[in-house]
Amino acid sequence: MTDRKLIDVAMEAMFNSYSPYSRFKVGAAIECEDGEVFAGCNIENAAYGATMCAEAVAIASAVSGGKRDFKRIAVISEGGDYCYPCGNCRQLLNEFSPELEVLAARSDGRYVSYPLSALLPMAFGKEIL
Ligand code: THU
User: Residue 43 C-alpha to ligand 1 middle, in angstroms?
Assistant: First the structure.
């Protein structure tokens, strides 16, 4: 799948975002090693701390579908800036695929790409335990 198509899948999920509190819609699409793609959007809650990030929802969906090896993730928001995964989501991604490529997109479709290891250097991972 092309980067563009993965971003499109993330954008489609973004439109389903439930974000009445922040009004900041986020979508994510994670591509597994075998090519399958799982999407997620942010899901907020009246108890704000119960909010789920789009990336977390996408990972949860993929892992629930039996996948644990990921190649790329695309993240997009409605904002004008590139949407990078938050620190907690970087950690969630690192658990499964420290070599992941992260596409951070903005609403006009432009994007930048970084290895997860650049966004989460000296990560705490399972190899330490
Ligand atoms: N959000 C995400 O979905 N992913 C991130 O990586 C950053 C933040 C969501 C959570 C909340 O619903 C909204 O963006 C504002 O923080």
Answer: 9
